[in-house]
């Protein structure tokens, strides 16, 4: 599991994600699916994912927007490969004006 830390302003909108290496993935496998969850969530002003998460052979990403000033969020990526590997990685987002 990897954990990254970033700072974001409430009005910013940008993509975050993870890049895997060939050493991470089983031979000849690719990324099949990616699921993104954000906690905490539920408030209309909370950090959200815009659209669907993106994936290619080695990269997963999600476009983030909003976020309440002073709140810290966990953006969790569950990545599954064509070989059945499952990676759980997290980005810790500190929202600050």
Question: What's the total number of strands?
Answer: 7
CATH superfamily grouping: Immunoglobulins
Q: Main β-sheet, in a few words?
A: 4 strands, mixed
The total count of helices amounts to: 0
Q: What form results from the Cα inertia axes?
A: elongated
Q: What structural class do you assign from the helix and strand content?
A: mainly beta
Share of residues in strands? over 45%
Contiguous low-pLDDT stretches (5 residues minimum) are none
Q: CATH topology, anyone?
A: Immunoglobulin-like
| Rg computed from alpha carbons, rounded to a whole number of angstroms | 14 Å
Strand order, main sheet: write it out.
1-7-6-3
Q: How much helical structure, as a percent, in the residues?
A: under 10%
Order of helices and strands: EEEEEEE
CATH architectural type: Sandwich
Q: How many domain modules? A: 1
CATH class type: Mainly Beta
Tell me briefly what this model is.
This protein is mainly β and 97 residues long. The protein has strands at residues 3-8, 13-19, 31-39, 48-55, 59-65, 72-81, 86-95.
